[in-house]
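tool_call: predict_structure(chain=1)
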Amino acid sequence: MKHNIGIMQGRLTQPKGRGIQFFPFDNWREEFYSAQKLGLDEIEFIFDYDHYQENPLWTDEGIVQIKNHMDKTGIKVQSVCFDYFMRRPFYKAEAEERDFIKEENTQIIKKVLSGMKKLGITLLEIPLVDASSLQNGHEKESFREWLAYIINHTDEKIYFALETDLNPEDFLEYLESFHHSRVGANYDSGNSSGIGYNAYVEVTTLKNYIFNIHIKDRIYHGTTVSLGTGSADFDMLFTGLKEIHYNHSFILQAARGMDGKEEENIARQKKFLTGYIEKYGI
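tool_result:
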């Protein structure tokens, strides 16, 4: 089967001091055409905290524009990375603010999910790492109860992929605790290698709970680096993916290269990834 290969939104835009990941307000439309030129299949959209009301997913006009560019290029948007949550998780707030922020989280995610439904986007990824990491049982339970409520008020065609820094056994146990087929995992090969987890063990433990994969490389306890130059063991990863018959998308979220050379950098990343897909016949 042919796996979709996509790109994280913003990677085809010069950062100009905005960091490694951001919503490209100045260039998001043009990214569809760059992705088409590179032979990619999809773009994973970002919904971030900064200026979120200007994100095209937030407005009816923006949703129409997204659909037009999807139709013109054939580039799909099948997933949204809800980076907003890393900046504003209600369970990290002070007690006096927690209810207010929780309600804000609820209203914002509902509006994003409404936009996704209009566009036929079926996967929302929620990062539970760094500032939104689940650090104890209370945070896990608070998030689980909240997400269960969201799922029960969301179109049944939309799935939720959690990205966590939990070890594979604890992550599996947490996913199973939802008792819901629409809750799974987003697997990030770079964040995993940065922590020091074994990729084969992770994917063969999580198995069918893996709804999406971000392809990245990081140095152990260090930063994101070019694919193949960090601690990520891609042979172990793809051995595991072949064993579990992984059949979803791969999203390139790797290190940036030289400013102004985004297309050349993504072309190299795509070649790297395609090589492993072909090598392991998945």
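agent: Residues 5-280 form a domain with the TIM Barrel fold (CATH 3.20.20.150). Proceeding to next step.
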